[in-house]
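= Tokenised fold =
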Amino acid sequence: MQSILIENQNQTTITGATKILSSTNAQAVVELANNTLILNGNNIEITKLDLENNLVVFNGEINSLKYNKKSQKIGIIKRILK
């Protein structure tokens, strides 16, 4: 299960995180079970990271969130036989 809690547009708590793919001052990319979540904003920083409990907390101004479905990898044999 995953959830996103944004408090006062300055603190974002995400449960269900399995991996941090990237994090910069302007963007963070978090891998979830079936999706990738992209956070855009200003002064974004990770303040808590607990991947054993699938929890990550960001501070900074969040301007947008975007979900991307994980692409399924297709094996070479499936591509040839298609």
Notes: The mean pLDDT is 87. The radius of gyration is 15 Å. The CA atoms of residues 4 and 14 lie 5 Å apart.
